[in-house]
Amino acid sequence: MRRSRHIAPARLSSHVRDGEPTPADALRYLVHLPDDYDADREKLWPLVLFLHGAGERGSDIDLAAVHGPPMLADAGREFPFVLVTPQCAESSQWVAEVSTLSALLDEVVAAHRIDPARISVTGLSMGGFGTWSLAVRYPERFAAIAPICGGLWMQSAAPVRSLPVWAFHGDADDVVPISATEQIVTELQSLDADVRFTRYAGVGHDSWTETYANPEFYDWLLSHRRVDPDMEGTAR
Questions:
Q1: b/e string for 144-173 if b means 16 or more Cβ within 10 A?
Q2: Between the CA of residue 106 and those of 1, 116, 154, what are the distances in Å?
Q3: What is the CATH number of the domain that holds 146?
Q4: How far apart are CA 207 and CA 209, in angstroms?
Q5: What is the pTM of this model?
Q6: Range of the domain at 180
Q7: Theoretical Cys-Cys bridge with 87: which of 35, 55, 64, 77, CB 3.0 to 4.6 Å?
Q8: Nearest to 13 by CA among 61, 49, 54
Q9: What stretches of the chain show up as alpha helix (H) in DSSP?
Q10: What is the pLDDT of residues 56-99, one digit of tens each?
Q11: Domain tally, the chain
Protein backbone atom coordinates (compact mmCIF):
# COMPACT_ATOMS: atom_id res chain seq x y z
CA MET A 1 0.00 0.00 0.00
CA ARG A 2 1.11 3.56 -0.67
CA ARG A 3 1.55 5.68 2.46
CA SER A 4 1.38 9.48 2.66
CA ARG A 5 1.35 12.03 5.49
CA HIS A 6 -1.22 14.79 5.91
CA ILE A 7 -2.56 17.49 8.23
CA ALA A 8 -6.20 18.17 9.00
CA PRO A 9 -7.54 20.69 8.45
CA ALA A 10 -5.39 21.13 5.35
CA ARG A 11 -5.41 24.93 5.73
CA LEU A 12 -3.23 24.54 8.84
CA SER A 13 -0.54 22.47 7.10
CA SER A 14 1.93 25.36 7.06
CA HIS A 15 1.53 25.79 10.84
CA VAL A 16 2.41 22.18 11.73
CA ARG A 17 6.13 21.44 11.81
CA ASP A 18 8.06 18.23 12.36
CA GLY A 19 9.39 17.88 15.88
CA GLU A 20 6.96 20.44 17.31
CA PRO A 21 3.71 19.76 19.19
CA THR A 22 0.62 19.49 17.03
CA PRO A 23 -1.70 22.52 17.46
CA ALA A 24 -4.84 21.82 19.47
CA ASP A 25 -7.11 22.34 16.46
CA ALA A 26 -5.18 20.09 14.06
CA LEU A 27 -4.42 16.39 13.54
CA ARG A 28 -1.55 14.69 11.78
CA TYR A 29 -2.65 11.61 9.87
CA LEU A 30 -1.52 8.86 7.52
CA VAL A 31 -3.33 7.62 4.43
CA HIS A 32 -2.61 4.18 3.02
CA LEU A 33 -3.95 3.67 -0.50
CA PRO A 34 -4.28 0.24 -2.13
CA ASP A 35 -1.67 -0.38 -4.83
CA ASP A 36 -4.41 -0.56 -7.47
CA TYR A 37 -6.19 2.57 -6.29
CA ASP A 38 -5.55 4.29 -9.64
CA ALA A 39 -6.41 1.30 -11.83
CA ASP A 40 -10.08 2.25 -12.10
CA ARG A 41 -10.76 5.98 -11.93
CA GLU A 42 -14.48 5.35 -11.46
CA LYS A 43 -14.20 3.01 -8.50
CA LEU A 44 -15.25 4.18 -5.04
CA TRP A 45 -13.34 2.60 -2.16
CA PRO A 46 -14.33 1.63 1.38
CA LEU A 47 -12.57 3.62 4.12
CA VAL A 48 -11.40 2.31 7.48
CA LEU A 49 -10.51 4.86 10.17
CA PHE A 50 -8.05 3.47 12.74
CA LEU A 51 -7.62 5.11 16.16
CA HIS A 52 -4.45 4.22 18.06
CA GLY A 53 -3.94 3.89 21.81
CA ALA A 54 -2.63 6.35 24.41
CA GLY A 55 0.98 5.25 24.02
CA GLU A 56 1.11 6.44 20.41
CA ARG A 57 0.09 10.05 21.07
CA GLY A 58 2.47 12.89 20.21
CA SER A 59 3.88 14.64 17.15
CA ASP A 60 5.81 11.76 15.55
CA ILE A 61 3.24 10.40 13.11
CA ASP A 62 5.16 7.15 12.71
CA LEU A 63 4.13 6.24 16.27
CA ALA A 64 0.51 6.02 15.11
CA ALA A 65 1.46 3.03 12.93
CA VAL A 66 3.13 0.77 15.50
CA HIS A 67 0.01 -1.38 16.00
CA GLY A 68 -2.98 -2.55 14.04
CA PRO A 69 -3.80 -2.12 10.36
CA PRO A 70 -1.21 0.62 9.60
CA MET A 71 1.56 -1.57 11.06
CA LEU A 72 0.41 -4.43 8.86
CA ALA A 73 0.17 -2.17 5.80
CA ASP A 74 3.69 -0.85 6.39
CA ALA A 75 4.89 -4.47 6.62
CA GLY A 76 3.49 -5.24 3.17
CA ARG A 77 -0.11 -6.31 3.86
CA GLU A 78 -2.43 -5.18 1.07
CA PHE A 79 -5.92 -4.13 2.17
CA PRO A 80 -8.87 -3.57 -0.20
CA PHE A 81 -9.76 -0.23 1.38
CA VAL A 82 -8.36 3.21 2.06
CA LEU A 83 -6.84 3.24 5.54
CA VAL A 84 -6.75 6.50 7.51
CA THR A 85 -4.69 6.72 10.70
CA PRO A 86 -4.78 10.02 12.63
CA GLN A 87 -2.51 10.80 15.58
CA CYS A 88 -3.84 12.24 18.81
CA ALA A 89 -1.83 15.04 20.43
CA GLU A 90 0.13 14.17 23.58
CA SER A 91 -2.10 16.32 25.79
CA SER A 92 -5.43 15.08 24.39
CA GLN A 93 -7.60 11.96 24.10
CA TRP A 94 -9.77 10.71 21.25
CA VAL A 95 -12.99 11.29 23.18
CA ALA A 96 -12.13 15.01 23.10
CA GLU A 97 -11.38 14.97 19.37
CA VAL A 98 -14.58 13.56 17.87
CA SER A 99 -15.55 16.75 16.05
CA THR A 100 -12.00 17.11 14.70
CA LEU A 101 -12.10 13.50 13.53
CA SER A 102 -15.40 14.10 11.75
CA ALA A 103 -13.88 17.10 9.95
CA LEU A 104 -10.84 14.99 9.02
CA LEU A 105 -13.15 12.40 7.45
CA ASP A 106 -14.84 15.16 5.44
CA GLU A 107 -11.47 16.22 4.02
CA VAL A 108 -10.37 12.67 3.20
CA VAL A 109 -13.65 11.85 1.48
CA ALA A 110 -13.41 15.05 -0.56
CA ALA A 111 -9.82 14.34 -1.61
CA HIS A 112 -10.18 10.64 -2.46
CA ARG A 113 -12.62 8.33 -4.23
CA ILE A 114 -14.44 7.07 -1.13
CA ASP A 115 -17.78 5.28 -0.97
CA PRO A 116 -19.57 7.30 1.75
CA ALA A 117 -21.78 4.32 2.56
CA ARG A 118 -18.77 2.13 3.43
CA ILE A 119 -16.89 4.08 6.10
CA SER A 120 -16.06 2.15 9.27
CA VAL A 121 -14.03 2.89 12.40
CA THR A 122 -11.96 0.72 14.70
CA GLY A 123 -9.52 1.45 17.47
CA LEU A 124 -7.68 -0.03 20.44
CA SER A 125 -7.65 1.00 24.11
CA MET A 126 -7.91 4.81 24.05
CA GLY A 127 -8.83 4.32 20.40
CA GLY A 128 -11.52 1.86 21.48
CA PHE A 129 -13.02 4.57 23.67
CA GLY A 130 -12.69 6.94 20.72
CA THR A 131 -14.44 4.47 18.41
CA TRP A 132 -17.44 4.21 20.73
CA SER A 133 -17.58 7.97 21.33
CA LEU A 134 -17.23 8.90 17.66
CA ALA A 135 -20.02 6.50 16.70
CA VAL A 136 -22.29 7.74 19.50
CA ARG A 137 -21.77 11.32 18.31
CA TYR A 138 -22.02 10.60 14.56
CA PRO A 139 -23.83 7.26 14.09
CA GLU A 140 -25.05 8.32 10.65
CA ARG A 141 -21.47 8.43 9.32
CA PHE A 142 -20.57 4.77 9.69
CA ALA A 143 -21.38 1.43 8.13
CA ALA A 144 -19.91 -0.54 11.07
CA ILE A 145 -17.68 -0.09 14.12
CA ALA A 146 -15.16 -2.38 15.83
CA PRO A 147 -13.93 -1.12 19.23
CA ILE A 148 -11.18 -3.09 20.95
CA CYS A 149 -10.65 -3.00 24.76
CA GLY A 150 -12.49 0.32 25.01
CA GLY A 151 -15.52 1.74 26.75
CA LEU A 152 -17.70 4.83 27.16
CA TRP A 153 -17.41 7.65 29.69
CA MET A 154 -20.82 8.41 31.21
CA GLN A 155 -22.61 7.93 27.88
CA SER A 156 -25.37 5.68 26.61
CA ALA A 157 -24.63 3.49 23.61
CA ALA A 158 -28.23 3.84 22.39
CA PRO A 159 -27.34 6.11 19.43
CA VAL A 160 -25.39 3.23 17.82
CA ARG A 161 -28.19 0.67 18.14
CA SER A 162 -28.72 0.72 14.35
CA LEU A 163 -25.00 0.13 13.62
CA PRO A 164 -23.37 -3.28 13.21
CA VAL A 165 -20.88 -3.61 16.10
CA TRP A 166 -18.15 -6.15 16.73
CA ALA A 167 -16.45 -5.51 20.08
CA PHE A 168 -13.37 -7.26 21.47
CA HIS A 169 -11.87 -7.51 24.96
CA GLY A 170 -9.55 -9.77 26.93
CA ASP A 171 -11.05 -11.12 30.16
CA ALA A 172 -7.71 -10.66 31.98
CA ASP A 173 -7.34 -6.99 30.99
CA ASP A 174 -6.03 -5.07 34.02
CA VAL A 175 -5.84 -1.71 32.21
CA VAL A 176 -9.40 -1.42 30.90
CA PRO A 177 -11.57 -4.03 32.65
CA ILE A 178 -13.70 -6.19 30.37
CA SER A 179 -16.75 -4.89 32.25
CA ALA A 180 -16.35 -1.62 30.29
CA THR A 181 -17.27 -3.46 27.10
CA GLU A 182 -19.72 -5.87 28.75
CA GLN A 183 -21.88 -2.99 30.01
CA ILE A 184 -22.15 -1.49 26.53
CA VAL A 185 -22.87 -4.83 24.87
CA THR A 186 -25.58 -5.58 27.44
CA GLU A 187 -27.24 -2.23 26.73
CA LEU A 188 -27.12 -2.77 22.97
CA GLN A 189 -28.47 -6.31 23.29
CA SER A 190 -31.41 -4.93 25.28
CA LEU A 191 -32.11 -2.66 22.29
CA ASP A 192 -32.00 -5.60 19.83
CA ALA A 193 -28.90 -4.11 18.21
CA ASP A 194 -26.67 -5.98 15.77
CA VAL A 195 -23.81 -6.50 18.23
CA ARG A 196 -21.17 -9.20 18.29
CA PHE A 197 -18.77 -9.61 21.23
CA THR A 198 -15.53 -11.59 21.26
CA ARG A 199 -14.06 -12.34 24.69
CA TYR A 200 -10.47 -13.54 24.68
CA ALA A 201 -9.98 -15.97 27.56
CA GLY A 202 -6.82 -15.32 29.57
CA VAL A 203 -5.80 -12.35 27.42
CA GLY A 204 -4.73 -9.09 29.04
CA HIS A 205 -4.83 -5.60 27.55
CA ASP A 206 -3.43 -6.62 24.15
CA SER A 207 -6.60 -7.94 22.56
CA TRP A 208 -5.79 -6.11 19.32
CA THR A 209 -2.95 -8.23 17.92
CA GLU A 210 -5.14 -11.32 17.46
CA THR A 211 -8.07 -9.23 16.25
CA TYR A 212 -6.21 -7.35 13.54
CA ALA A 213 -4.43 -10.52 12.38
CA ASN A 214 -7.78 -12.23 11.72
CA PRO A 215 -8.91 -12.03 8.04
CA GLU A 216 -12.52 -12.54 9.17
CA PHE A 217 -12.34 -9.18 10.94
CA TYR A 218 -11.78 -7.30 7.67
CA ASP A 219 -14.34 -9.38 5.79
CA TRP A 220 -16.89 -8.42 8.43
CA LEU A 221 -16.03 -4.71 8.25
CA LEU A 222 -16.28 -4.65 4.48
CA SER A 223 -19.53 -6.62 4.38
CA HIS A 224 -21.54 -3.68 5.70
CA ARG A 225 -22.98 -0.60 4.05
CA ARG A 226 -24.53 2.35 5.83
CA VAL A 227 -28.31 2.25 5.59
CA ASP A 228 -30.05 5.49 4.66
CA PRO A 229 -33.12 5.64 6.97
CA ASP A 230 -35.13 7.45 4.28
CA MET A 231 -34.32 4.81 1.66
CA GLU A 232 -35.03 2.05 4.15
CA GLY A 233 -38.43 3.51 4.87
CA THR A 234 -39.19 3.79 1.16
CA ALA A 235 -38.23 0.17 0.58
CA ARG A 236 -40.70 -0.96 3.20
A1: bbbbbbbbbeeeebeebbebbbbbbbbeeb
A2: 22, 10, 27
A3: 3.40.50.1820
A4: 6
A5: 0.94
A6: 2-225
A7: 64
A8: 61
A9: 68-74, 98-111, 126-137, 179-190, 208-212, 215-222, 229-235
A10: 999 999 999 999 999 999 999 999 999 999 999 999 999 999 99
A11: 1
